[in-house]
Amino acid sequence: MQDQRHRLPSDNLFQAAYIPLISVDLLTDHVLPEENQHFLTSLQSNTMGSDPKSEAKPKASLRELRPGSRKQSSKQDAPSTTGSMLRLSLWVSFAAWIANFDNGYSGTVLIMPSYKRTFGSCEQVIDPETYANIEHCTLTPLQESLISLNYLFIALGGGLAGLTGQYCGRRGSIQVGCMLAIIGAAGMLGTSGSFLYYMVCRCISAVGIGHLLASGVTYGSECIVPSKRGLSLGLYNVGLAMGNVASSAVCAGSARLEAANNWQWKTPILCQIPLGLILGAGILMLPESPRWFMGHGREEEARQSFGVLYCQDPHSSVVSAQIEDIRSHLASERAGKKTVSVFDIYRKKHIRRTMTSALVMIGMAITGIQFVVPYTALFLKGVGMSDPYLINVIIGLCVLAGSFLGPFIVEYGGRRPATLSGYAIMAMCMLILSSVNTIVGSYTSARIAMIVVLCMWAFVFGATIAPSAGLTSVEMHSVSLRTFGQANTTVLYGIFSFGATFWTPYMLSPNHGDMGASVGYFYAGVTVVVTILVFLLVPETAQLTLEQIDEVFNSGIMAWRTSVSKNKTAILPRKGDFGDESTAV
């Protein structure tokens, strides 16, 4: 029995917690680290019920008796990390701001007269009201759909971010993204009259945006403490929403310029240049990801990074414990291997995590956001709205309003409840959108109802799906494969986003799909399917450290059996190490 006890692998912690025949005392004596002892014990008590006898005689582990143990650290003396976490979160959110600003204006400029005049085909027609000859310019559905081509290059950029993030660091990958976005924006400003050159430069910019999407959230997840990860990375969603609102507002303002003035559509592109410069230079004020340093064997630099992030001495017991935790998990992942390969994410051990992360982001891409954000103005103009620019801004503000609630919902309510309830409400909104148009028709009351429903959809999306998707997808990957895993997720997100934005103009065009408001039926059905898949496959990760998430997947626990309450119980020993947050990242 003694030999069996010492051969029990740490990857089976969760499995052991659900096996009634294994004694908690057997597992916790000398074998497991203190935090994992409590994790296993709490999971067993949640599943089997607590044992009064064992509660009456608690055992002290070896680590508890050591001088300098984390148990002896004082909550009052520990510095707060709130300031450092907030600074890092704001810069990560700024990357999201830039990415969604680019996505927001790409569809809105399609209805601007100067854009149509520059890249479309024009002819002289008679104005039905004044009977005067006027110039009428139009874009083909193919030109409208090709705007979505940038999503394929966002996917390419996300894939390349796996390489730049691995060899240049997380900050370096963000800077590469800023550089490409600036080059692409500058090129688009000089391409008047050539749609081909415009699209080439737009695709270059999209590669940079892909870098920002893949590297920004990865950098944040690796640096923020778990008790603040949901709240802090929830600001990433606020950044996305603010980028969309800002692009809508800029387009609403520039649309007031003369129809022949090319600065109608050039103004939002120009804004990308100073934004990229600010982010690329400002990210240098923050430390590199300590996990990236550890993955490259640079322990001393990882300590310095943790010291800055945690406001601790680099050689304090808290930082040393974190370094040891990461080292042990890296050693476990790399057992028998000298290097980590991008293809490891598709191997049997990691394929479930890779596909779960991809499902989360693909679900967000195909359930309506690529219809609501890029093509709302086009859709509203098609159903007879007089000022689609203004309504587009209002819908963007609804997403922003929801995003302020998002961090609290995903952190305290949980990722799974937020995602499942969000998709359920969004499906109902899309169903109502189409039903109102079918029953009432195109009367003014129906148009008002459609605007209200779209605003409700946008608010719910901003409060639930947007914050949970970006956060959950990056939490799914293992320590050494997070860069490659999130790059793979970004690639698939870009491909499916391209599909969603490519088919939308054809669905709305009177000469093709002519679905109009009936497009809601389609998105309602897609949302229901995604909801079912999320319920079956995506586990709850709120309140867990990234190492404990590893153990969730290694244990084989079904996703629907996980919950925030069990996760909170599992991490109690880590609370208080910093006074107001937990130690592990």
TrEMBL record:
GO cellular component, one term: membrane
SUPFAM superfamilies: MFS general substrate transporter
Membrane topology: Multi-pass membrane protein
Alphabetical UniProt keywords: Membrane, Transmembrane, Transmembrane helix
Segments of this protein annotated with the region Disordered: 42-81
Domain Major facilitator superfamily (MFS) profile: start-end pairs: 88-542
Source organism, top-level taxon: Eukaryota
GO molecular function, one term: carbohydrate:proton symporter activity
Keyword flag Transmembrane helix: yes
Record-annotated membrane-spanning stretches: 146-165, 172-189, 357-377, 389-410, 422-440, 446-469, 490-508, 520-538
Presence of keyword Transmembrane helix: yes
Main location: membrane
Cross-referenced Pfam families: Sugar_tr
Composition skew (Basic and acidic residues), residue ranges: 52-67
Compartments where found: Membrane
Family that this chain belongs to: Belongs to the major facilitator superfamily. Sugar transporter (TC 2.A.1.1) family.
Protein's name in the database: Major facilitator superfamily (MFS) profile domain-containing protein
Native source organism of the sequence: Penicillium salamii
